[in-house]
């Protein structure tokens, strides 16, 4: 066994690990990055990027099939070539992965170790069976993986996860998606729009990331109009049958149905990759899921020399959070013991369905926990169904709820489903991080006719409810028609 000594070891060469490595290198030359799988990151290989490529193809098919209301007719069938769809996704995915791999190639060889790391002690890691590494400080950046009931493994090759979808060479005919969360909705809706028969099954009524019951109910209605979605399903049996899967379930009318699908996609959540790290060999404080608890401002765990970042931390499993956490953890591992708090931004999340979904700042559930008992917050609302620009573009589906604090009038957060929610969410997140009040937001410029006028309507509604502005005018002509 080879023996090495370093100042900082980073376990995991994904987004958080690469950010940690770079940040640690600014403080010491003695840093090693350990990767147990392939470099290239989850985001580029099987996450953010290929999922958005699939969505782009689906959007293109959907738009081509829905021109008639504008008086524009694409005569003949819109033909979807599954092989070409998947070819573009794989080609572009490989291109994105290539950029990451090129960047990793630029890291000196002596700074990289290939193999799975496990803890032997608080300062010792074993890498496969080839290296014993002693590190003064360690960053855990091992990412996450899909979590689903073990019994589903009986479905063999018919059970798939998101990783498998992006390696397809053609589209299947049918699929059952379990989990109408972020991944299930993005992939399920796209596949439906590309001509795949989709059945979507959820648990307990949860749809998307919502905590606001009205916004969630709206989303459920919109998606259910497009494909079969039962957010609180009863699935009695799933068995392999002649190369397919036979599913027996009780439908939304209470009638037993038996359907055959080619694949079952498990999109029922993800779990941090910390269970095979040998953490039993050290004394570290864990949360209820067995994940080391870390200070969100320093990413330091209860073992002062061990830091954690990215999906592994069980905090906010998003790309920009992984990058931010990685930078904080790596920098603190580099400068230890003089650790510093890092920049934590206002929370923002977008789901690239149609309509899009977004969450900003505090969720309604968090607002309720903080201010619910004293009734110290108000909710401003806008429906996008009659919103001018949304209607012009026939994208007039959506509901936005914005929460603000009574008295101060400060923006607390928002939950929404609606057109271009990714952009509206950025406006709101920037305002949130700047600790703006609803009145200050209303002082900002709004062009006409734009979807942002819908945000203004929700802000006006909110300001009136906060008793900081006048009551809403129902037919406000000076705002511009359909604002
Ligand atoms: C389908 C899908 C779509 C997504 N879309 C978005 C999106 O649109 N926007 C967004 O913000 N986020 C999105 N995400 C989430 C985002 O991809 C993750 O939050 C992010 O990639 C996490 O980065 P990470 O560095 O924590 O993990 P990873 O990039 O997974 O890196 C972890 C690395 O650690 C390695 N590793 C694990 N265990 C060991 C070990 N013992 N020893 C050595 N190495 C080890 C792994 O091989 C891996 O390379 C999506 C995720 C999925 C699955
Ligand atoms: N656009 C984006 O930013 C994006 C896209 C994809 C993934 N992600 C990240 O990946 C994370 C994981 O996504 P996810 O969709 O796997 O998790 P999720 O937590 O968003 O959704 C899981 C869903 O599965 C349901 N579920 C759980 N067990 C079930 C069962 N046995 N049967 C049926 N349904 C069941 C849950 O009720 C929930 O609705 C997200 O939280 C997000 O951070 C982000």
From TrEMBL:
Transmembrane segment boundaries: none
Pfam families with a match to the protein in the record: Pyr_redox_2 (PF07992), Pyr_redox_dim (PF02852)
Provenance organism: Psychromonas marina
InterPro entries found in the cross-reference section: FAD/NAD-bd_sf (IPR036188), FAD/NAD-binding_dom (IPR023753), FAD/NAD-linked_Rdtase_dimer_sf (IPR016156), Mn/Fe_SOD_N_sf (IPR036324), Pyr_nuc-diS_OxRdtase (IPR001100), Pyr_nucl-diS_OxRdtase_dimer (IPR004099)
Family: Belongs to the class-I pyridine nucleotide-disulfide oxidoreductase family.
Domain of life assignment: Bacteria
Protein name: Dihydrolipoyl dehydrogenase
Flavoprotein among keywords: yes
FAD/NAD(P)-binding domain residues: 7-326
Annotated Pyridine nucleotide-disulphide oxidoreductase dimerisation domain residues: 349-458
NCBIfam families, sorted: PRK06292.1-1
Cofactor (UniProt): FAD
Keywords: FAD, Flavoprotein
């Amino acid at each position: 066994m080879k023996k090495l000594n370093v100042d900082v070891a980073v376990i995991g060469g994904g987004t958080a690990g690469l950010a940690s490595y770079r940040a640690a290198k600014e403080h010491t030359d003695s840093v090693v990055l350990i990767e147990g799988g392939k470099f290239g990151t989850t985001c580029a290989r099987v996450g953010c990027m290929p999922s958005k490529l699939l969505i782009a193809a689906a959007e293109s098919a959907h738009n081509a099939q829905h021109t008639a209301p504008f008086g524009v007719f694409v005569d003949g069938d819109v033909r979807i070539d599954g092989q070409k769809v998947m070819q573009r996704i794989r080609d572009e995915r490989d291109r994105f992965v290539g950029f990451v791999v090129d960047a990793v190639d630029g890291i000196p060889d002596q700074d990289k170790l290939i193999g799975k790391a496990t803890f032997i002690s608080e300062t010792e890691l074993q890498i496969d069976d080839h290296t014993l590494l002693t590190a003064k400080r360690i960053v855990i950046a091992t990412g996450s993986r899909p979590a689903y009931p073990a019994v589903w493994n009986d479905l063999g090759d018919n059970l798939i996860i998101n990783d498998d979808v992006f390696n397809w060479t053609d589209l299947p005919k049918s699929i059952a998606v379990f989990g109408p969360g972020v991944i299930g909705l993005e992939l399920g809706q796209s596949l439906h729009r590309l001509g795949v028969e989709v059945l979507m099954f959820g648990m307990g009524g949860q749809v998307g990331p919502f905590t606001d019951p009205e916004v969630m109910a709206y989303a459920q209605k919109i998606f259910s109009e497009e494909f079969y979605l039962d957010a609180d399903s009863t699935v009695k049996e799933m068995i392999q049958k002649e190369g397919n899967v036979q599913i027996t379930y009780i439908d939304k009318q209470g009638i037993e149905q038996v359907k055959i699908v080619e694949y079952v996609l498990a999109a029922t959540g993800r779990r941090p990759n910390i269970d095979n790290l040998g953490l039993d060999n050290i004394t570290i404080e864990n949360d209820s899921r067995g994940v080391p608890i870390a200070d969100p401002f320093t990413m330091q765990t209860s073992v002062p020399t061990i830091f954690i970042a990215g999906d592994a931390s069980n905090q906010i499993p998003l790309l920009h959070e992984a990058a931010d956490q990685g930078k904080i953890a790596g920098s603190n591992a580099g400068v230890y013991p003089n650790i510093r708090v890092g920049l934590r931004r206002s929370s923002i999340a977008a789901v690239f369905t149609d309509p899009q979904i977004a969450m900003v700042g505090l969720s309604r559930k968090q607002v309720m926990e903080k201010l619910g008992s004293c009734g110290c917050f108000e909710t401003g609302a806008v429906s996008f169904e009659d919103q001018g620009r949304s209607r012009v573009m026939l994208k007039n589906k959506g509901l936005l709820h914005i929460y603000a604090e009574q008295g101060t009038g400060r923006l607390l957060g928002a939950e929404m489903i609606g057109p271009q929610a990714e952009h509206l969410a950025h406006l709101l997140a920037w305002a949130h991080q700047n600790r703006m009040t609803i009145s200050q937001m209303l002082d900002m410029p709004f062009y006409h006719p734009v979807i942002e006028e819908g945000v203004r309507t929700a802000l006006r509604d909110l300001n009136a409810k906060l008793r900081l502005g006048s009551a809403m005018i129902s037919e406000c002509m000076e705002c511009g028609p359909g604002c």
